[in-house]
Amino acid sequence: MLTGLRKYAILIATAGSLASCHKKKDKSDVTGWNYNDKDRGGFFVAKPKDIKTGPGLVFVQGGTFTMGATQEDVMGDWNNMPRRVTVNSFFIDKTEVANVHYREYLYWLENVFSDDQFKAVLEGAKPDTLVWRSELGYNEPLVEYYFRHPSYNYYPVVGVTWKQAYDFCIWRTDRVNEGELINKGYQNKNVVKQEMNGGGQENFNTKSYLMGEYQGVPGKPKKNDLKDAQGRPRNTVKFEDGILLPDYRLPSEAEWEYAALGLINENPQVRNGEKKRGEELISNKQIYSWKNDGYDNLRATRRGNWQGAFLANFKRGNGDYMGTTGGLNDRSAYPAEVTSFFPNGFGLYNMSGNVSEWVADVYRPTTNVEADDINPYRGNVFKKIDMSGGEGNLRDSMGRMKYIPESDSALRNRRNYQQSYAVNYLDGDSLSTVAYGYGITTLISDKSRVVKGGSWNDMPYWLSPGSRRFLEEDQSSSTIGFRCAMTHYGAPEGNGRKNGNFFPKRRQKR
Question: What residue stretches are annotated with the Sulfatase-modifying factor enzyme-like domain (predicted)?
Answer without folding.
Answer: 54-371
